[in-house]
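Re-running the complex after MR caught last week's input typo. The corrected sequence lines follow. Everything else is unchanged.
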Amino acid sequence: MHATDKKEDSPGAKLPKLALVGNPNVGKSVIFGALTGRYATVSNYPGTTVEVSRGPARLKGTDIELIDSPGINSLVPMSEDEQVTRDILLDEEITSVLQVLDSKNIRRGLLITIQLLEMGLPLTLALNMYDEAGERGISINLKGFSDALNLNVIPTIATQGWNLDKIQNVLTLNRVTKSTLKYPKDIEAAIDSIAELLPETRISRRSIAMMILSGDSTIDGWLKKNLDTESIEKIWSINAAMESRYSEPVGYLINRIRLTAADKLLAKVITKKEPSGSKFAGFIGNISMHPVWGIPLLLVVLYLMYQFVGVLGAGYAVDFVEEFIFGRFVNPWSRRVVEYVLPSGLIHDLIVGQYGIITMAFTYAIAIVMPIVSFFFIFFSILEDSGYLPRLAIMVDKIFRLMGLNGKAVLPMVLGLGCDTMATMTTRILETRKERIIVTLLLALGVPCSAQLGVILGMLSSISLMATVVWMFSVITIIFIVGFLSSKIVPGDTSDFIMEVPPMRIPMMKNVILKTIVRVEWYLKEALPLFVLGTLVLFILDRTQALSALEVVTGPLVVGFLGLPIEATEAFIVGFLRRDYGAAGLLSLQRAGMLDAVQSVVSLVTITLFVPCIANMFIIIKERGLATALIITAFIFPFAIFAGGVLNFILRSLGVTF
Amino acid sequence: MGQDTAVEEVLEFIWSERESGRSSVAALLEIEEVKKEADRSTLDAMCADGLITVESDTVTLTNTGESLAREAIRRHRLAERLLTEVLAMDEESMEKNACSFEHTLTPEVAESICTLIGHPPTCPHGLPIPKGNCCLSTRSEISPLVNPLDRLKVGETGRIIFIVSKQHTRLDKLSTLGIVPGSVVRVHQKRPAFVLQHGETTLALDIDIVKEIYVKTVN
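Corrected-run output:
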């Protein structure tokens, strides 16, 4: 959730580059973290890394640049994140590659190994999660494996740091081995004739020819950059001739031959016995995607979240920090200090006044939101590392179909509960443009981020569980309706639901704590400046009397239509900067006794649906383009108010009091 | 080659030409396999027998011709499926065998083969296999050797014999996950989404995809 610091250290001097490549969820980021000493987000689901992280590392006295890449199942990309990895190998001066394999899933790793060999890159293999293979009764003849491939093979358990010291030698261990795998005669002939037309490159021309024959459309850009139109046309005509010769896709035939070769190799070096070890995690894993038991389990997870984040975090922890630390010490003391220096006036009010940087921005950001965010991230990290989230995709696939999505889209949606900005980047794991647009819209519209969710749960838990249920039901219904309608409007296709389900694991406390700390730090860095900015805006609006003017204008809407007190306008104004700031404003209104139960629920639904925060806007523009970003915002803002008004009307008419 | 064989071959080619939207007599007689066994006089004889009608350069099947061609195509494509997928013959020798094999199949044998390999909807080249009576009746007297994966019960294991999919990206994607003919998969659950176990990989799939994967049960 903090993948933004990637540019800072591409060092001027050319260091050797070592790329970490492998299937999704095999532990590349753990190895990256161990070798560079910096944290890369690690979770238990495929697609945690959607863009490249780079960092300096020192291996046996040699400085190198280490590159962590998004997981791939093939070097013929099927989604944007896979293309990122292929492009690194295609375009960058990679000195060598460390392929990370899942020891219990070597067959699929070998499919990539063969492609890397065909590229002619210096290569070493790390057989990671070596312990899990053992627990499942899989034993690997390392010597035989290494000999058969003519590559060095290092067994590792990255999460425990086992054998990672051996990776230090990777620069001397790596070897260039030619793949001896042959394909049917006519495919070989086509490979040769395409390869002849290609320019000299760092990776073998044969491998690029095979990507083209495998139906890789993403390589067209590279061809246009490196070749004249005539040769490109020739290449595509050779490709078209091959396609018409076979009824099955050529890429599929090629992969079948590669898998057959992998099977032959594995038959010699792998023996399987009955598995040993604990079955508990597997049991929970099965329950979590069970058609009947999966639903109660989901409710239990949600209830635990409500208790942990809402009651414990937003209730007790916020009470302690806000009322005790800030209420008794920070605010009175800073008031005293400021009053001593500047008894009154502009600066005094700016720091400790009603819209003061300490009394409002810091109090909201640190005393209210931070404890909640911390509790949320602890809970969320445990969920992420357990492997529960991808299982949710199985439960919701059918419902998501109705929104023009498949179950896989639940991953970015749930990650949105952490941070909508990062989740919008994760939409890259989705395969079609239609799916990416719909998920981006739904994230911006209705998925509250951690800070906002925490504040909301805090407010709701002080009313009743019923209020929480009404709020959740309203938001989910709206997400569903908007998703359903946009699936009819947004053109394009929904991709197949083919998703890998990682094994359930018991989360490691070390990673959970580390991840929480990194994320809280990221939150403070990103949110605090915006909270200060929002406070400044309110301060200026207040001083220039614009605030009361604005309140007069928006009065009919806020008071009349939404049925809220006029002070709620302030919360919505800062909500333009960050929705959680807006929610925090509502929370303090509620604490001051200015919102009754219905008003709380209505204002919370409105702020949940409110415009995406500034950071999220920037990412939407970057990922989807300015036009889409503007359309999304233009839809969301009036829609949020409208939905809040409708809910207000319904609750009032039914006389609900919670 | 006997006369009947030649007629059957010609009927088959008229059928497959029609599948690609062509019906030219001249083009038909230019096809290598047709040239070998038939000429204009064969067509004339077929006209006389009421199997086809020829109008200037356009050839059309009559009702009788249609049903004969349909049976012949069905036998040919079933033979191809049987030879490639079940007996694992390569493309070249498969074609040779299928061509001579089909003419010796009686309708009963064709039905048995069709049932045995699970009423495949297409031939290995992706062309549709016309349905026979056996495909239409719900009761199966011979339990099929090859079934769509979704017929397996939870916990059962099957070896993939063939995957019929018109969508190339689907086949590509499945192959990168190791799902190809020859792979062994176990059905972990069927609802709310289909989950299968392949080695140590657990995959969740749409039911539409699962129906395209044909497996032979293994114990």
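None of the earlier attempt is carried over here. Chain B has ten helices and eight strands. The domain at 146-218 of chain B is CATH 2.30.30.90 (SH3 type barrels.).
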